């Protein structure tokens, strides 16, 4: 039998809780619902404390196969960062697509591997994967909801696959749900699930959270299936969005194209609220001060040889405005010759949606532009941009935050942007400057940031220069006020408000 070892990010996986189940079919991975519920909210951070079924596009773990050994590895991304601790604490059930790794999940089940909470993988027929995920999710909804209308494609076969995938997830959620459970559905991949659950007679409380923006109804109206999606969302009791602007847009969309009151079967309209997602501020701040992280910070600073570091971190996605950022860096180096050889732009890009043509093309454009700027300005001992295209362990990422004199976030549109919040938490009131796109949800909360418009290369370059020259006292004051905000508005606060 294959042996499974823990992934590096998986050290917290509980020992001794048996896994078993049918990854491809009916029975859950943690057989018998046997994961003990350990609902012990900290006294100062009262939190949700009930039985919870989470539905998200993907499971919070993926499987890495390496010559007969399989490693369960926790996924990287905002959604998992926010929900994993809660799922662990309350012993939730997490329903999600198995990412096509159906056979691997079946082997994990046979290997009776332990995970800290129950995982319920949903297998989708291979013919649905591309039109569902690459197609409707990432070729239609992602661009449309981020207001990139020109990038959105509208295809009936994609929507049909999306409906089929949502049906499969809803069916699994229904089987996993017991009376009294709260169901929490996440993000744009599963907009139809609340409505499908109601059609199937599920009466549990359903909360929905959209992690990405909701566009103005003028844009949303282009979607041929706008009424179907709103009818799906209308099955939820509560809908959380990242920012007040998205709330206004969704309310308008409901009043323009939403289902009539009679179609809700006597249920009240969903309560739509802005509930900005956040981070585990205290845990991250503590971890960032640990000995391991401090040692790594020294190594990063040594390799920068005293030069200020301007850091950017993101999935390699066009919505993050990476090309716009590179244009601003180029402009800065053109007009501020004194900065040549004196500043280091460090770009950490996590691979995402690889194999999707739009993303592969974007990656090539980024590669070319980094190469061109480095070719143009490098000196024997210095290159302006250091570019890492891979995912790093959390401690390493925290060390980069600690070492960075500024973080530069250039999203063209972003639901929230957790990197901005993580940087503030990792600095914990020490200096540093947050340069933040005004189009990220985080800009509505983090008032100590220098706001930029990423379409304005000259303005962005000017803001970077200002950050590099900012007096230490002003840096500390700005960071301290944002840190205080995040202490009060942590991920625990978000969970409580979403599930209230
Ligand atoms: C979506 C919305 C919204 C990144 N690189 C590494 C790594 N990360 C982690 C960060 C952060 C997360 O990934 C990225 O979250 P963001 O919020 O910045 O962006 P999206 O992935 O686009 O997330 C976004 C979010 O959902 C939550 O609602 O804020 O607007 O688009 O947590 O730390 N983590 C590790 N290594 C890396 O190399 N360990």
Helicity level, as a percent range?
40-55%
Shape: globular
CATH architecture of the largest domain: 3-Layer(aba) Sandwich
Q: Could you tell me the radius of gyration in angstroms?
A: 23 Å
Q: How are the strands ordered across the major sheet?
A: 6-5-2-7-8-9-10
Number of helices: 17
Q: Characterize the largest beta sheet: strand count, sense, and whether it forms a barrel.
A: 7 strands, parallel
**Remind me, CATH topology of the largest domain?**
Rossmann fold
- Class by SSE composition: alpha/beta
Multimer state: single chain
What separation lies between the terminal Cα atoms?
45 Å
Q: In total, how many domains does the architecture comprise? A: 2
Number of strands: 16
Bound molecules: GDP-alpha-D-glucose
**Which percent band covers the strand fraction?**
15-25%
Instruction: Kindly report the average pLDDT value.
Output: 89
What is the CATH homology-level superfamily of the largest domain? Glycogen Phosphorylase B
Description:
The protein is an alpha/beta fold. It folds into 2 domains: 2-275, Rossmann fold; 281-488, Rossmann fold (3-Layer(aba) Sandwich). It has 17 helices and 16 strands. It has helices at 78-90, 102-110, 126-145, 156-176, 193-199, 217-220, 226-233, 244-257, 281-288, 291-304, 322-335, 357-377, 394-403, 418-427, 457-469, 472-488, 491-499; strands at residues 4-6, 52-58, 61-66, 69-74, 93-97, 118-122, 182-186, 205-209, 238-241, 271-274, 309-315, 344-350, 385-389, 406-409, 433-437, 450-452. The strands form 3 sheets. A 7-stranded parallel sheet has the order 6-5-2-7-8-9-10, sandwiched between helices. Strand 5, helix 2 and strand 6 (118-122) form a beta-alpha-beta unit. Helix 4 crosses helix 5 (193-199), helix 10 crosses helix 13 and helix 11 (322-335) packs parallel to helix 12. The longest helix has 21 residues, at 156-176. Mean pLDDT is 89; it is low at 1-37. Bound molecules: GDP-alpha-D-glucose. The site of GDP-alpha-D-glucose has 26 residues, from helix 1, strand 11, strand 12, helix 13 and helix 14.
